[in-house]
Design goal:
- The protein is about 25% helix and about 20% strand.
- It is globular.
- Strand 11 and strand 12 form a beta hairpin.
- It is built from seven helices and twelve strands.
- It has a six-stranded mixed β-sheet with strand order 3-2-1-11-12-9.
- With about 240 residues, the protein is α/β, with parallel strands linked by helices.
- Helix 3 crosses helix 4.
- The protein has one domain: Purple Acid Phosphatase, chain A, domain 2.
Length: about 240
């Protein structure tokens, strides 16, 4: 059984479909971990939601969705004016437009989005949208888990391997316990580290790539597809 991890789709439906085809997702046996930020910035937010809904129906508990900062903003935007303003600055307007064009209000799906968890832990790694500040994921605040960038910027971390998104880079970055980074090349298998971190967001919505980490046993490989728009969908 494989575990496939992806993050920060941001409405990039065509790229997501291409990537899942490239990794040959097997809904009947694979596990799929999504590290947050389905919505905002990209053009097909409603379509991304429907794709994840279909996958959840097919995969059940083998699809785990981790909360991202954009998901969290969306869920609280209509009950808090300051959050709504922040969401608009982060291109929540594109999400509203996408749902409106399809005859729906995003609030219809709040209960479904409520399935998203603040982090997810296995025997081998921890998944959090933005990474961890403290080694025990339960000791991190929600802000740490969905907004913080210390791990992405190379802060030392000596706990179990963390896989995260949130901070886009041109290439997938693997960091050791002291925060020293190296790039992981696509399509080149590697031994899954026991410690340190892997930053998986490669900025598809900005014209970069959508990346997946495919884990089978103790071996992993990065698979990627390019953004369909050379300059991306959103500044």
């Amino acid at each position: 059984m494989r575990t496939i991890i992806l993050t920060d789709v941001h409405g990039c439906l065509e790229e997501m479909d291409e990537l899942l085809e490239k990794v040959q997702l097997r809904p009947e046996s694979d596990s799929l971990l999504f590290l947050g930020d389905m919505m905002d910035r990209g053009p097909y937010c409603y379509g991304v939601l429907q794709r994840f809904r279909a996958l959840k129906e097919a995969m059940g508990e083998r699809l785990v969705m981790v909360l991202g900062n954009h998901d969290d903003m969306m869920l609280h935007a209509f009950s808090d004016g300051a959050v709504y303003a922040r969401w608009m600055r982060n291109r929540g307007d594109i999400t509203l437009a996408s749902f409106g064009e399809n005859g729906h209000d995003v609030r219809e799906y709040y209960r479904w989005f409520g399935q998203m968890v603040p982090y997810y832990e296995t025997a081998d790694f921890i998944c959090a949208h933005a990474g961890l500040v403290k080694e025990d994921p339960a000791e991190n605040s929600l802000h740490d888990l969905v907004w913080d960038r210390h791990m992405a910027e190379g802060a030392p971390y000596h706990g179990k391997l963390v896989i995260y998104g949130h901070t886009p880079r041109s290439r997938v970055v693997c960091r050791d316990e002291e925060g020293n980074g190296r790039f992981l090349e696509p399509d080149v298998p590697f031994a899954l580290p026991e410690t340190g971190s892997i930053g998986l967001d490669t900025g598809c919505v900005y014209g970069g790539r959508l990346s997946a980490l495919v884990i089978e046993g103790k071996t992993a490989v990065i698979r990627q597809v390019k953004c369909k728009m050379e300059k991306g969908y959103c500044d």
